[in-house]
Amino acid sequence: xxxxxxxxxxxxxxxxxxxxxxxxxxxxxxxxxxxxxxxxxxxxxxxxxxxxxxxxxxxxxxxxxxxxxxxxxxxxxxxxxxxxxxxxxxxxxxxxxxxxxxxxxxxx
Length: 108
Prior knowledge:
Blueprint: H1 12-25, H2 29-54, H3 60-67, H4 71-80, H5 89-107
């Protein structure tokens, strides 16, 4: 995987915290920043997916895809947030299609 240098202005306190994390993890500051960005992006995708699902803009499967997680993980997140499940024909069809596709993969 290739890398590209990026310049960003960080508040002194934030940079100090990043440096502390890097030292605790025994990694360089760049690796610490990358790790923290990955964590933040994962959380951002999950929040976005949950909000879209809660507002009825995406199906359960699409929310899982947006979040980059399995159906089970998105369902657990929905349950943890007490977001009501939205059942409609489109969601059910997606669910059945996915199950059948997985079954074919297992059977072959």
